[in-house]
Amino acid sequence: xxxxxxxxxxxxxxxxxxxxxxxxxxxxxxxxxxxxxxxxxxxxxxxxxxxxxxxxxxxxxxxxxxxxxxxxxxxxxxxxxxxxxxxxxxxxxxxxxxxxxxxxxxxxxxxxxxxxxxxxxxxxxxxxxxxxxxxxxxxxxxxxxxxxxxxxxxxxxxxxxxxxxxxxxxxxxxxxxxxxxxxxxxxxxxxxxxxxxxxxxxxxxxxxxxxxxxxxxxxxxxxxxxxxxxxxxxxxxxxxxxxxxxxxxxxxxxxxxxxxxxxxxxxxxxxxxxxxxxxxxxxxxxxxxxxxxxxxxxxxxxxxxxxxxxxxxxxxxxxxxxxxxxxxxxxxxxxxxxxxxxxxxxxxx
Length: 349
What we know:
Layout: H1 9-19, H2 35-45, H3 50-63, H4 67-72, H5 75-82, H6 89-104, H7 111-115, H8 122-133, H9 142-151, H10 162-173, H11 176-180, H12 182-195, H13 214-218, E1 235-245, E2 249-254, E3 265-266, H14 279-282, E4 293-301, E5 306-316, E6 324-327, H15 338-348
Parallel strand pairs: 1-5
Antiparallel strand pairs: 2-3, 2-6, 4-5
Helix pairs in contact: 1-12, 2-3, 2-8, 8-12, 9-10, 9-12
């Protein structure tokens, strides 16, 4: 790690006190942070942007205003409220965690206890601990990695550079001023990365750490952090069936609770495999033996693979098959993941 002039927590916090973002889960100056809101926002923000999360968060808190309310809700209700945010294991873990916390009477106020909860790893424990409980820990997300990589001019590519970035973040957090205001220091790092130390065009001229930034002195700030070349994502294929009836219903089913999109609702279909399906191959998985017609194709990207789904449609007097009938005019109330919403838009308008 390259040596750096002192990146002062005092300067960062002076900047933060003037420019802090107002976010629906963030306590205002003088207010006590709500651990429930901090935890909920951190789980939602995993793999998702602040802009995308805010409307989901506000609806979610309106529906489940406390950890006790969330714990008491059926899992299907929670999954339905989560639909569209993706990474649905987060929603299942969220519900399980709420039940543990509600049963214990509240969140543990230490990192070991937090990390023992369902769905909470080292980063999330550090974020909740610092922001909600004032524990002097520095949570390292993508924004903080970017800031640290530039302050210390860490040129090794990700993910190999992560240990050096964590060490750099810990060095910044060891500043006595940072340790005295751990909640604000963590959020100041988030805000600096999100609003000033941005990926493509860092705003060095307005950065409180412009002078001590080693990458700026070397003229390489815009190229950091470096990343290893991405591998091509494999493609998987499936066929799903859009079956409607005279009552205005469509046949849906619930995915197994374990695995990808566990517990979410989907159109009946085949498994997802590495080779394309022919119609003849897929028909044994159809919910009914009827005249199916091609109804379009949907592509959807998951983290580790690309999915291509062919859609077949049919209309019958009464839908039958594995699953349940659902009113077409009430599909907004069902826990459909994004890929299935794409299918509905493709074939159902």
